[in-house]
UniProtKB/TrEMBL annotation:
This is ATP-binding protein. PANTHER family: ATP-BINDING PROTEIN RV3427C IN INSERTION SEQUENCE-RELATED, CHROMOSOMAL REPLICATION INITIATOR PROTEIN DNAA. Coiled coil: none annotated. Belongs to the IS21/IS1162 putative ATP-binding protein family. It comes from Paenimyroides tangerinum.
């Protein structure tokens, strides 16, 4: 009878419940009342589904780094304090439809922090997608050519959080400018966006180009945004020096 029950659990894809029931059979379930056993099985199935959901969200996001908030170095020299990390860890900015602008020189940890925030958002059940800005614009240009553009834009719009990394490495041409404007316009006041850039926000106007569109994009992005301006030496260079020693 127990094997028949286990088979049915597996057929119904109740994998968490299957594992929990198997363990009770191996260890003995005499210590459980009927109510306790049912609660244990349901809790196990719930936890299993939540874990698989988080794993699926992380895989879909395609982060640049496997990063966690607990790994972020907080220090005055980095211009990063515990209160800022606590605010980011709570993911309240997503509920508030707030944007985050992360700036700083090469190697100071912009991509790592952006990825860590994204990981935390996935763990909290939010849909996240990570993009290198240049690669995203190239992909959208190809999508325009093969007719899948609107599908890609709709997919981006539906994400609770998107991360645009390495923004500003190249000035935007008219096509990239239009793509960027549409993404920001679709998400404005509805979803959160993180932009990471080597350039200070004051230089973004020149990168975007055409004044009217640049004004419109920056008005939507900068308004109601949280800014993180990282300082200090390159962590990549520092880590490489440490490894050589």
């Amino acid at each position: 009878m127990n094997q028949n029950t286990l088979d049915k659990m597996k057929n119904l894809k109740l994998y968490g419940m299957h594992r929990a029931f198997t363990s009770t059979l191996e260890l003995g379930s005499a210590s459980y009342t009927n109510d306790e056993l049912i609660a244990f099985l349901i809790d196990s199935e719930f936890d299993d589904k939540e874990n698989r959901k988080v794993e699926r969200l992380i895989n879909t996001a395609k982060f640049r780094y496997k990063a966690y908030m607990e790994e972020i170095t907080v220090s005055v020299t980095r211009n990063l304090d515990k209160n800022t990390i606590a605010r980011l860890t709570s993911c309240d900015f997503i509920k508030q439809k707030q944007n985050i602008l992360v700036t700083g020189s090469t190697g100071v940890g912009k991509s790592f922090i952006a990825s860590a925030i994204g990981y935390k958002a996935c763990m909290n059940g939010y849909k996240v997608m990570y993009f290198s800005a240049g690669k995203l614009f190239a992909k959208l240009k190809m999508a325009k050519a093969d007719g899948s553009y609107h599908k890609e834009i709709d997919r981006i719009e539906k994400q609770d959080l998107i991360i645009l990394d390495d923004f500003g490495l190249q000035s935007l041409d008219s096509h990239k400018r239009d793509f960027f404007m549409e993404i920001i316009e679709d998400r404005h006041g509805k979803r959160s966006t993180i932009i990471a850039s080597q350039l200070p926000v004051s230089a973004w106007h020149d990168v975007i180009g055409e004044q009217t569109i640049a004004d419109a994009i920056l008005d939507r992005m900068v308004h109601n945004s949280m800014r993180i301006d990282l300082k200090g030496e390159s962590l990549r260079k520092k880590n490489a020096t440490t490894e050589k020693k």
